[in-house]
Amino acid sequence: MIFLETERLLFRSHEPQDENDFVQMHTDLEVRRYAGNRAWPIDEALRRFRNGYVGRPDETYGLWATVLKEEQKYIGACGLAFPPNQPAPALGYYIARPYWGRGLASEASLAFLEVGFGRLGLPRILADVEKGHGASEHILQKFGFQFVSHEGFPATGRVICLYELLRKDWEANK
Ligand SMILES: CC(C)(COP(=O)(O)OP(=O)(O)OC[C@H]1O[C@@H](n2cnc3c(N)ncnc32)[C@H](O)[C@@H]1OP(=O)(O)O)[C@@H](O)C(=O)NCCC(=O)NCCS
């Protein structure tokens, strides 16, 4: 199912042929540095893909397979995630390393914020990011997200920061 398109990107449900590109992305430590700081072993990446990604998302929420249209290539997963224990949907983005630095996560973010505040009428959208993740913090600040709180995890030394963007602020700054 195709959910959304931008100038360069298409967002659709994950399909079986995405498996290799998905595995390559999540077995790359640089991609997972601020998402647990652990590259997934190949068998774990395969299991997660087959059990949790193929055919998903299938409606509004979740991280959509992100395809670079000009190469017809799976380059990541982006969207609004809304797990049951979360107070509001959260913006998420994963882009494969060869495609970093081309404005693709920003293009995806803009598209999903427009869907969230426009089509879905959400009052706020969250995002969480590990402290020190410069690129991700920069993207959130660029779109007007405000810092809300942080939580430290002494066992790993990680600090996760919660940000939010309110629809009224989004609309005021458009
Ligand atoms: C974070 C990530 C999505 C960024 O994707 P991207 O397509 O390279 O991002 P963009 O090119 O749209 O934007 C990056 C911006 O951050 C800036 N930036 C890059 N590295 C930076 C750093 N260390 N500190 C501050 N800003 C930085 C870029 O200059 C760019 O700014 P601009 O839009 O003003 O030009 C990508 O690196 C990624 O997938 N990382 C691994 C997964 C991950 O960490 N996801 C986020 C979890 S919170």
Task: Please characterize this protein's 3D structure.
The chain is of the alpha+beta class and 174 residues long. It has six helices and eight strands. The protein has a five-stranded antiparallel β-sheet with strand order 1-2-3-4-5, with helices on both faces. It has a three-stranded antiparallel β-sheet with strand order 6-8-7. A hairpin with a 4-residue loop joins strand 7 (146-153) and strand 8. The protein is globular and about 40 Å long. The structure holds coenzyme A. Residues 31, 34-35, 93-95, 100-106, 129, 133-136, 138-139, 142 line the site of coenzyme A.
What's the gist of this structure?
The chain is of the alpha+beta class and 174 residues long.
Descriptive tags:
6 helices; single chain; alpha+beta; Aminopeptidase; binds coenzyme A; 5-stranded antiparallel β-sheet; 174 residues; 32% helix
**CATH class, please?**
Alpha Beta
- Please state the second-level CATH architecture: 3-Layer(aba) Sandwich
Rg on CA atoms, Å: 16 Å
Bound small-molecule species: coenzyme A
Helices and strands: which structural class? Answer: alpha+beta
Q: Write down the overall geometry.
A: globular
Number of strands: 8
| Beta-strand percent range | 25-35%
Largest sheet at a glance? 5 strands, antiparallel
As for the number of domains, it is 1
- The end-to-end span amounts to 30 Å
Average pLDDT metric:
97
Q: Helix tally?
A: 6
Low-confidence stretches: none
Give helix and strand order, one letter per element, not per position: EEHHHEEEHEHEEH
CATH superfamily: Gcn5-related N-acetyltransferase (GNAT)
Strand order of the largest sheet: 1-2-3-4-5
Helix content: 25-40%
